[in-house]
Automatic annotation (TrEMBL):
Residues 1-20 form the signal peptide. It comes from Bacillus pumilus. GO terms for molecular function: hydrolase activity; nuclease activity. Pfam families: Endonuclease_1 (PF04231). The keyword Zinc does not apply. This is Uncharacterized protein.
Length: 292
């Protein structure tokens, strides 16, 4: 006899449909089948248990993140920017040499644990191929380190939230250019463009780049020994502690939403290395609330 089921089968899991067989009561029952209008789904008790555990883990993680940003909720504009700065500053700082090993974890290729994914090209390359020669990968400062002249010193120079594994030659081509649209396609990494005053990354990571710069502009406010880093709507910023182009970055942020690679990276940096988070990965809407 079929029975219509509307409700909770296991904690946190809502199922709506018609049972093709009675719901098993015993813990060791084999399975039950749910007939929906478009498909038939068979569940085992173990699957339900695993699904419940996964849902509970997600709820716990979301609660932890919500608590982390508690003092920022309900704010906007300069007040939100200050609240976020107060939350994410004073993070644990790495040395520049420690960044090598950290990037092997944060930028690990999810399909090949022996490799890292390079930022602009998307190439998967051996973790052991790090260095400064052609065919190797190195440490790209997405907020160009000459924009504020902080170099590779602890603080902005070693902050993992904007340091990424990047092909040596592609890194050299990007140099310290601001970010903007257009230019010539870089043959070493198709889909990336550059001209005399700007660099346009591949559409796959445009949002990633924007969110890294948003983080830097909030984390470094000049209230410690580091420069006050700010975004502006210009290029050719030179050695000033400024980075552009703000209007373009906001568009990229919307066009290329946060993905799971960014979320995983944010979590690794928080849990393993710096004990701080990128707010614009956790709450993308805050970019507009601060800068628009």
């Amino acid at each position: 006899m079929k029975r219509t089921l509307f409700g909770t089968v296991a904690a946190g899991i809502m199922i709506f449909g018609t049972l093709a067989a009675p719901l098993p009561q015993a813990a060791n029952a084999q399975s039950f089948t749910l007939n929906e209008p478009s498909q038939t789904i068979t569940f085992s008790p173990l699957q339900l248990q695993n699904e419940t555990s996964a849902q509970q883990a997600k709820i716990a993680a979301a609660s932890q993140i919500d608590s982390y940003y508690q003092s920022a909720h309900g704010k906007s504009g300069p007040a939100l920017k200050k609240a976020l700065h107060d939350i994410i500053d004073d993070h644990k700082q790495l040395s520049y040499s420690q960044v090598w090993d950290a990037l092997k974890k944060t930028d690990e290729d999810p399909k090949n644990p022996n490799n890292v994914l390079l930022l602009y090209s998307g190439v998967s390359r051996s973790k052991q191929a790090n260095g400064g020669n052609v065919g190797q990968w190195n440490r790209e400062h997405v907020w160009a380190k000459s924009h504020g002249n902080f170099g590779t010193s602890q603080g902005p120079g070693t902050d993992l939230h904007h340091l990424r594994a990047t092909d040596v030659q592609t890194n050299s081509t990007r140099g310290n250019l601001d970010f903007d649209l257009g230019g010539n396609e870089y043959k070493g990494a198709p889909g990336n463009f550059y001209d005399s005053d700007s660099f346009e990354p591949h559409s796959r990571v445009k949002g990633d780049v924007a969110r890294m710069l948003f983080y830097m502009a909030v984390r470094y406010e000049g209230d410690d020994r580091f420069p006050d880093l700010e975004l502006n709507d210009k290029v050719n910023n030179g050695s000033a502690p400024l980075h552009g182009k703000m209007s373009v970055l906001l568009k990229w942020h919307k066009q290329d939403p946060v993905d799971q690679i960014e979320r995983n990276r944010n979590e690794i940096i928080y849990q393993t290395y710096q004990n701080n988070r990128n707010p614009f990965i956790d709450h993308p809407e805050w970019a507009s609330e601060i800068w628009e």
